[in-house]
Amino acid sequence: MSEQIKCIGCGVPIQTEDKEGLGYAPPSSLKKEAVICQRCFRLKHYNEIQDVNLTDDDYRKILSSIGDTQSLVVKIVDIFDFNGSWLPGIHRYIGKNKLMLVGNKVDLLPKSVNKNRLKQWMATMAKEYGVKAEEVHLVSSAKGTGLQEVAEQIDELREGKDVYVVGCTNVGKSTFINGLIKQLGTEQQDIITTSYFPGTTLNLIDIPLDEETALFDTPGIINHHQMAHFVSKDELKIIMPKKEIKPLVYQLNEEQSLFLGGLARFDYIKGGRRSFVCHISNDLNIHRTKLERADDLYEKHLGELLTPPQDREKLPPLKRYEFMIKEKDTDIVFSGLGWISVKEAGAKVAAYAPEGVAVTLRPSLI
Ligand code: GDP
């Protein structure tokens, strides 16, 4: 039966039901003598790493095994979804190994963003999560920006050890690794292998770095609390910017509200007429209304006027966070969507996001 058939590339048991899962192969391929899983197939023929989804348990096993190795851990985050794309518990799992933090999708930021400040903020957030980042880098895996520098830094930081690349789904880990393979040169491209991870039944893709060491791709975990999971695949294209975002300025009076589609809400409560700058996907509709009408509007028009999401059933209720903005130049960050910048101190605001999605303050990046 299909459970007994193993992939000739990596050795995982073949299954034909879950296309996104480990060991998937199309049913027709079972007729062949040598069966290869889709992930190995893509790697072999297209030199492409494909992500597979794992259960949380499997993932924890992989992560904790990394703690037993001597290696460099490269953690990829999506800079538009720092909190949502953080791997919970990573600080416990990496052991004594060094960690390099790579923020992906830098091509989406407006040119005016201060990259050093963003890196500092990432390092601070990592610290809050209990991890010391040896280095923080910003890259665009899609455009190739910053990859060469990262490749060089990896080589330096790893001090001759193995490298493990970790990240949750959708951060662009596959795109990153594919880009890195290009940096490594054709020699490596031809000798990519897949290998078992010692102590688990999970396979990792292994890209030789030299005779003894390798870079391992770990499968991505699904972080269930990401904004991305509350919308459909098509809607994700709306909320995830495709190109550099253009900041949008809103002049608001006290007691006015903004809806970011139906996924988030911002109330300006007190502090005199002033401007707020929205840094979100330019395809996402912003709807302005009076604060006193906002609850009613949301109740009546979520999924129509206020969209995405069209399917309101998938969306947990919005949770309210109230802030007094005490510092000038503050960003209110809606993880997975973007942020709203406040120039002057002294504003009382409330920010709402689906339960589980982080809303945080940080010094402005601009
Ligand atoms: P994985 O699930 O972490 O392996 O992520 P993928 O590599 O499949 O990428 C997830 C999504 O992010 C895809 O839609 C990619 O096109 C997009 N993506 C990946 N890297 C970048 C990047 O550097 N910039 C932008 N704008 N999008 C990216």
Automatic annotation (TrEMBL):
UniProt xrefs under Gene3D superfamilies: P-loop containing nucleotide triphosphate hydrolases
Stretches assigned to coiled coil: none
Membrane-spanning ranges: none
InterPro entries registered for this protein in UniProt: G_CP_dom, GTP-bd, GTP-bd_ribosome_bgen_YqeH, Mito_lipid_metab_GTPase, NOA1/YqeH-like_C, P-loop_NTPase
GO molecular function, one term: GTP binding
Domain CP-type G: 60-224
The name this protein goes by in its record: GTPase YqeH
Species whose genome carries this gene: Fictibacillus macauensis ZFHKF-1
